[in-house]
Amino acid sequence: MVNVRETYEQLTAITSADNVQVDEALKDHTYTRLGGKADFYVTPETYEEVRDIVKLSNQKQIPFTLLGNGSNLIIKDGGIRGIVLNLGRLADIRIDGTRMVAQSGARIIEASREALSCSLTGLEFACGIPGTVGGALFMNAGAYGGEIKDVLVNTIVIDRHGDLLTLSADDLDLEYRSSNIPEKGYIVLEATFALGEGDYDAIKSVMDDLTYKRESKQPLEYPSCGSVFKRPPGYFAGKLIQDSALQGQQIGGAAVSLKHAGFIINKDGAMATEYIHLIRHVQNTVKKTFGVTLECEVKIIGEDPSG
Description:
Elements: H1 4-14, E1 20-25, E2 37-42, H2 47-59, E3 64-67, E4 73-75, E5 80-86, E6 93-96, E7 99-103, H3 108-117, E8 120-121, H4 133-138, E9 142-143, E10 146-147, E11 152-158, E12 164-168, H5 181-184, E13 187-194, E14 196-197, H6 200-217, E15 224-227, H7 237-243, E16 250-251, E17 254-256, E18 263-266, H8 272-290, E19 299-301
Parallel strand pairs: 2-5, 3-5, 4-19
Antiparallel strand pairs: 1-2, 6-7, 7-13, 8-14, 9-10, 11-12, 11-13, 15-18, 16-17, 17-18
């Protein structure tokens, strides 16, 4: 059992009291607008603070969860015990020639825009991905034929013991929507990308086209976690869901989008439990109809509600 007062004092000895919230509603920090409370919600400002918080969690055996910007995540209604760490204050982006160094909390969209401003090509695919740089490495994010492993050179991480490591892209085992970051327990602090010199107008044209495709096809008017399922080999998840007559189906406030079948939206004040039940219903129906297993791309974490 975590001693709230003692843990609060230890955390505020590491970082500013403004950066430590108790019983913070996590639905305010996710794109789905779902989730219970965090015992401690901490937003450190330096790498040293991140390291010291990791070491504190180890020493005091306090549960520890890293939260990105909540764009590819469902947090259960029971919330998350212990420390929830958000690196949104680490958001610096620096460019030197054709190399970009972006901190973990920077939005990958902003990184693509910074590349555009310097007429650098390679990150156009990321102009519509809502996650952070750290989250993009975590899942080897990609879209429209590009992915993080195409441009990543190396990364600085903190391991589960609180040690800083510099790793090459090859060290992360980057594959389709996956890496070894969760398995190894790494916390990404920054990433270096190798970009190429390009023409500003040509880069902007590609980004404008991808932005149009995203805005015209995706239900951005509702809270959602983005694309829920990975693409099964030989199929498209959205097409399978559409052909299973699942569009518009609703459990509580969660619904399969009519605009894009691969999205489940928080249409009307959904609870995480309803959202997850709808995901399972979609998986079961597609499996029964087509014999295809849909694997979640979205990550589901946290505790079920008590009672």
